[in-house]
Structure formats: C-alpha cells, structure tokens
Amino acid sequence: TASSLFSAFTSTNTHQTVFDFPLTAFCLSPQMPGSSGMSMKKTIGHRGVETTTGETTYKKTTSSALKGAIQLGIAHTVGSLSQKAERDVLMQDFVVVESIFFPSEGSNLTPAHHYSDFRFKTYAPIAFRYFRELFGIRPDDYLYSLCNEPLIELSNPGASGSLFYVSSDDEFIIKTVQHKEAEFLQKLLPGYFMNINQNKRTLLPKFYGLYCVQAGGKNIRIVVMNNLLPRIIPMHLKYDLKGSTYKRRASPKEREKAVPTHKDLDFIQDMPDGLLLEAENYNALCKTIQRDCLLLQSFKIMDYSLLMGIHNMDQASREKERSGGSLVDNTGSEGAVTPDQRRPQAQKSLYCTAMESIQGEARGKGALDSEDHMGGIPARNSKGERLLIYIGIIDILQSYRFIKKLEHSWKALVHDGDTVSVHRPGFYAERFQQFMCNTVFKKIPPLDKLVKLSVIAILISFFSSGVQSGRPDLVPRTPPLVDNPADCEANLSTSSQGSTGVVSTSPPLR
User: Fold this and answer.
1) Dihedral Cα 376, 382, 384, 386, nearest 10 deg
2) Averaged pLDDT, 41-66
3) Which helix (H) or strand (E) holds 486?
4) Quick one: where's region Disordered (predicted)?
5) Residue 324 CB: number of other CB atoms within 10 A?
6) What confidence score (pLDDT) does residue 231 get?
7) What is the predicted pLDDT for the residue at 309?
C-alpha cells in the first residue's frame, strides 16, 4: 500500500530509499537555492542555466534540487492521503491546501536530507485523488511512477520558460506553472470535476495533482499531467497548432533541433493535403474537438494549442532495414525507453492514449490494445504512408483576462485581427475547430459503388473488344463521327448484332 511504501521511504536509514531508489536523485546541489554564489546564463522567464555546471535552474533553484523536493513531497502526500478514508468529494475539498515542512535535519514525519529546508504544499488532495481514481491510477502506481526512479528533464521545453519532467515509465509529465495559471486551475477545478464525471474521453489535459515547492524564498508551482507523446515511440514530426497564421512558423533556432516543433504555417506548407483519417475516426475526433472547445469557451479560455506528434510507420520500417534490423533512434527522442524497462504488469492510465480519448463507448477494447496502433490514431499522408498520430490540447490555463484583451487589440492594429493567436474565446474556439477539421484532418473519401461498376464495365469492354479483333493487346478503335444520323443508327444496329453471334462490321460503341 502507499502508506507502507511511504513508511519504508522514511525509515530510520534515510540514505536508503524504497524501491532501491538511487541516492543521487535526492542528493541535491549543496549550493543553497537562491544564494548569490550562483551565476546564471541567459534566462527565459524563470528558467535559466547555471554557468559553472551547465545545470538548468528555475527561480534560481537547481533542477536536481527541485526534482528531489518534488519526489520527497509527493511521497509524503500520497502516503498520508492513503490513511484517509475514501468519501465523496465536497465543494470545500477544492479549496483545501495541505502543507508540510521538510527541515534538513529531518522530523517525525520527514526524513533528513542534505540541502536547504523547503516547504511542500498540496492543493485539493481529496479532489485530485478522485481524479486519479477516475483514470484507474492506484496510489502505489502513482507513487511508483513518480518516485521510484529519477525524473527525466526534457531538453526541449519550448518558449514558455517552464521546466518539464517526465516519469521514467513514460506515464506522467510534471510542468512548472506560473502563479496566475495555478490560481486559475484552482478556480477551474469544480467545473473540471463535473466535466470529467460526464465525459472521460477528452483531448484536454488530465490533471493528476497540483503542488508548490517553497525554497529560497520562492514559490515553485508544479502540475502533474498525462504524457501525450510517449518516448518509446519515435516522433518523426511534431506540431503545435492554434489555427492562427500570424507569425506561426518555427524559428530558425527551433529548426536546428533533431525533431523541431513546427507550427501552423509549417503544416500548411509541409502537408497541404492534410492528414487522412478513416471516416469513423475522423468523425469521432472532430466531435471530441468540438465538445472540448465548447467547454473551454464556457470557461473563457483561449490561446490553447493542439500538440501533435506523428510517427511514420513506413519510415520507421525503412530506418530499421537500413540499421540491419535494430531500430536506431535518430529522431531526437529523449531518454527513450524500451518495453522491457517499464514496470512489469503496469496498468496504463485509462483514457490516456489518443485513440482512447476520441473513441465512443461502443468500440471494443481489442481495438484499443492493438500493438499495431500503440495508442496512436491511424492515418495516412498524401503519399499513402502509414502514420500514427498522438494528439492532445495543451496550455488551457490561459483565461481571456484584461492583459490578453490588450494584447489582441495591439496586434489587431498592426495585422489582421482574425489571424492572430490571441482572440476572444468564442472566435478562438470556432477558428480552432475549423482549422483542425478542415485543414489538418481530412476524411478518406469512400469509393463509390458506381465508380467501381464503371471501372469494371470499361475493363470488360476493353478486353471483349480485343478478343473479337483477334488482337487482345490492341486498344479498340473509336468509330469515326458521322454526319448522317441514319448511318449512326445503322452502326448501332450492326454493333448490337455482334452480341448475337453475327460478325460485327464495325467496333462497338463504348
């Protein structure tokens, strides 16, 4: 159980951890977070790089220190939560904040550690426990995924200035969020709770926990979410799509990466014919996008994106053949894992893959568990190559506040207001749906039965004419045009006699 795991975790021998956790994960930088001895390189938002070691920092706290604090805090909160009886979620549960202090010398509740004191806060623990239960995440699985192995920092976090970590088993993403985003998520929780109850199949982020690490006088807020792009599957293309065309092109610096994240104008240029889906999957996907956009619009949320990773199965097969049977990952997947490295008999979160997120309830489970699809949505490009698409809506914690209204007004003055990314929620949702369901994703047109019959009729006429002339390799001649209608009738009459055994004097009309 989670409580027994935490008891082992906080045993008297604090230098050993449960699951044989390597000590380096909790041995944080001896440099005190936020001290003046830490020199910084160029920063993006709160994210920077320490010049002496090259380690990433966030609010002047090293990444290793932050990862250790996160794992210690989550281990404690999950262990203590398992001792509370399960019950229905009440409205007051959404505003509860639990706090625990981690002194470096340890306490009756916390182990000793080798870095500066910090405080760990857990927001709405009962509500988030319910969310995790809805998606089939057991407490011990949640604890195992996040605390058994060191968290892996993603080196391609984007331009938001946030830090991203992924669990070693590829299940969860941990992202740092700003104060306003965390505050907005807290207000969003009751509505999010109702929507999850009514509809578990959604492309919206699945939030599993909201926490805060207080270190060096700074508040570092983090959110735990589902992982959209599994590292075990190499992504040949990645896109961040908003439905906007104003400056929506990947920068030259971004294009230098192994797998750059392209944007809307790049997609229109690279894939003018879009991605082709079977009719059933196309309809389910567009219905899911429409439902999610209506929910986001009702909460006055805008500026969200569709994150999409594309795995080209045919390209992967060619790469495997060139490498002599062992697939070499040259697509820039970070810390890729193999199936043997994952926890034995680990149950993945329910409704977490792209295919599960859009499928209707009537679909059989066999289609979901197919190893051929690996959770992705099957599609094809204009070349007919087989693709697997992994998608999800991200960055939903941006409300249309006063600052966003000013940003849209300023951009509208210098450019077409309908093409900029920042827009009022209603218009943004409509434009987002139109772009995704008309430009990005397209339905494979069914082959009409009449077309099939026409092709068959042409083939029969072609071969029967060749057999009658004694030269099946020759294309039948087209009869010359006649000016006299009587001659035309005579030709028709003569050609019709050919079907009754009389030798035809002219080729049959086609």
Assistant:
1) -10
2) 81
3) helix 485-497
4) 318-345, 486-510
5) 7
6) 86
7) 95
Token pair listed for 100? 């625990």
pLDDT tens track for 370-417? 445 678 999 999 999 999 999 999 999 876 554 444 554 445 444 444
The tokens describing 28, both together, are 């944080």
Q: Is the pLDDT of residue 441 over 70?
A: yes
- What share of the chain has pLDDT > 70, as a percent? 67
Q: SS3 for 28-81, per residue? A: CCCCCCCCCCCCECCCECCEEEECCCCCEEECCEEHHHHHHHHHHHHHHHHHHH
> CA–CA separation, 298 vs 156, rounded Å?
32
Question: What architecture (CATH level 2) is domain 231-327+350-446?
Answer: 2-Layer Sandwich (3.30)
Concatenating the DSSP letter of every residue in 345-372 gives TPPPPTT-SHHHHH--TTS-HHHHT-TT
**Which pLDDT score, from 0 to 100, does residue 510 have?**
43
- pLDDT for residue 331 is more than 60: no
Domain residues of the chain, as ranges?
A: 1-227, 231-327+350-446, 477-510
Q: Which two tokens stand for residue 174?
A: 């941990």
Q: Which fold has domain 1-227?
A: Phosphatidylinositol Phosphate Kinase II Beta (3.30.800)
Contact status, residue 506 vs residue 494, Cβ threshold 8 Å? yes
Q: For residue 379, how far is the Cα from the chain centroid?
A: 16
In angstroms, what CA-CA distances link 399 with 212, 301, 319, 396? Answer: 21, 4, 43, 8
Q: Are 222 and 70 in contact (CB under 8 A)?
A: yes
How confident is the model over 98-156, as pLDDT tens digits?
A: 999 998 888 888 888 787 889 999 999 999 999 999 999 999 999 999 999 999 998 76
User: Per DSSP, which regions of 77-177 are E strands?
Assistant: 97-102, 118-123, 152-153, 164-166, 172-177
- Listed in sequence order, the residues at least 6 apart from 239 whose beta carbon sits closer than 8 Å to its beta carbon are 261, 262, 263, 266, 267, 306, 307, 308, 310
